[in-house]
Amino acid sequence: MKEHFFQCPYCWQNISMLLDNSISKQSYIEDCEICCHPIQITAEFQNLQLIGFQSENIEQ
Predict the structure, then answer these.
(1) 53 CB contacts (<8 Å, ≥6 apart)?
(2) Series of mean pLDDT values for 10-residue runs along the chain (60 residues)
(3) Whole-number pLDDT of residue 60
(4) In the chain, what are the domain boundaries?
């Protein structure tokens, strides 16, 4: 597992999430720990290193 820090696309607060670096490509929805809005998380790992990360607002 790898802790990754980023900015919430809703409340703009810095938050962190644990990412499973044993899965090379992953996409899931997780709520912000501060404002509780759902965030679409997309992460890509290569050799256990994070090479791509996106956090997107899914509410329109």
Answers:
(1) 4, 6, 19, 41, 42, 43, 44
(2) 95 96 96 96 96 91
(3) 65
(4) 2-57
Rounded Cα–Cα distance for residues 2 and 22 (Å): 10
**Threshold 0.70, pTM exceeds:** yes
Please give the Cα distance from 33 to 49 (Å, whole number).
Answer: 24
**How far apart, in whole angstroms, are the C-alpha atoms of residue 23 and residue 34?**
26
Distance CA 5, CA 18 (A): 9
d(CA 4, CA 53): 9
Separation of alpha carbons 8 and 58, rounded Å:
12
